[in-house]
Amino acid sequence: MEDDELREMEEALQVDWSQGREVRSKKVSVVGGGLAGLVAIRELCREGHEVVAYERGSKLDGTWVYTPETESDPLGIDPTKTVVHSSLYDSLRTNLPRHIMVVFQVVIVIGASASAIDITRDIAGVAKEVRVVVRRSEGGIIFWDKLRLSNMYFHPMNWGLPYPLAGPDKAYADGRVGFQDGTEVIADVILHCTGYKYHYPFLHTDGAVNVDDNRVGPLYKHVFPPALAPGIAFVGIPNFVITSVLFELQSKWIAGVLSERISLPSEETMMLDVEAFYSKLEASNVPKRHTHRLNDFKFELEDWLAKECGCPPIAEWRKNMFHSSLTSFIAQPETYRNELDCSEVLYEQAEQEFRQYLVPERVIDRRQ
């Protein structure tokens, strides 16, 4: 793409959020150069803030950075093992953990969600055995039945161990692994597909922010700790959301609050909101570790953020396409990436919105 085309696209994306009002610029540090960090940097700069970003890796883009390296301890029991933080597949099919060589090996997969399903599907055809350790009952996970192969086995997860360590009861340096159901195997690889463990060793808040059973809190709308707002904010903690949309809206909100264009409630009001949310989760029997798993709350939060930022709510076609994709994922775990079952109307609505970001000669007919 030519330089003038890039400039034209960038100008199309620029928005004057100040709307003619005085904006107070702040010096802001962004910790992390993944997708959430990059979006935060962009929105903070657009708002007129002075931004310094910190990234411990040698490249930006977090889990989207590919590396062929794998960790030095395939069983994951050596506390001194080399840790490889990038988790992108070489095939670019997903941003879940990278493919590893498991031909004719015994692999234990701990977990039963997206990454576990992806990895199990990829390796079951070449591995000697795949032992899937699940927290929920096997019969309650519909898509596992569709993936079942003769070399796949299921084991219950040990509820007595704290999240996210629950899994095999015992693992030894020689590869022996014992399960709660009494089975013992010699494993070559143990893969922990248990999601993210929130951990902020660099953050010292004297108890204002804690991580308890993977709940980061208290956080108002999963972003601001009431006692420290707006001085500290978190982007990208919720999961089971449309990530890119959420990151952008959270970042716009933070940028607007810092410039005093958007006001936060009082500390007391924010705490009451957090406590009400926790009570709602408890009443619905949602475990504490799933505090940030929004599920049915995803669009409620994103629409709320959009309103606070003065943006339109999430387009209905996005919501419908999300639900359509989820339905396909459950019904067709083997092929859902290739056979997205969306109506022609949804495609047309999506195309119409994205056309505004493209220079005319670059618009491509998807049906060609």
Automatic annotation (TrEMBL):
EC code(s) of this entry: 1.-.-.-
Cofactor: FAD
InterPro entries: FAD/NAD-bd_sf, Flavin_mOase-like, FMO-like
A GO MF term: N,N-dimethylaniline monooxygenase activity
Keywords: FAD, Flavoprotein, Monooxygenase, Oxidoreductase
Protein's UniProt keywords contain Transferase: no
Family stated for the protein in its record: Belongs to the FMO family.
Official protein name in the record: Flavin-containing monooxygenase
Organism: Saponaria officinalis
